[in-house]
């Protein structure tokens, strides 16, 4: 893992794992073990979080 892209993927994975509870992390690991693309799964999680934050912001504005 010497490329910058691999390092970026590792960092994204670390950030995702740091923010998931045990149950959610377990579900994600299971999905990856069943063949889900880890990068795509991480992107979906990030997008869901962005949408959640946007909804929260709209509710307080």
TrEMBL record:
It is found in: Cytoplasm, Cytoskeleton, Microtubule organizing center. Its main location: cytoplasm. One of its GO terms (cellular component) is gamma-tubulin ring complex. One of its GO terms (biological process) is microtubule nucleation by interphase microtubule organizing center. Transmembrane segments: none annotated. InterPro entries: MZT1. Keywords: Cytoplasm, Cytoskeleton. Required for gamma-tubulin complex recruitment to the microtubule organizing center (MTOC). Belongs to the MOZART1 family. This is Mitotic-spindle organizing protein 1.
């Amino acid at each position: 893992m010497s490329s910058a892209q691999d390092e970026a993927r590792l960092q994204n994975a670390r950030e995702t794992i740091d923010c998931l509870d045990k149950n959610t992390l377990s579900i994600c690991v299971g999905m990856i073990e069943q063949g889900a693309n880890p990068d795509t799964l991480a992107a979906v999680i990030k997008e869901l979080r962005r949408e959640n934050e946007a909804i929260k912001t709209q509710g307080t504005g």
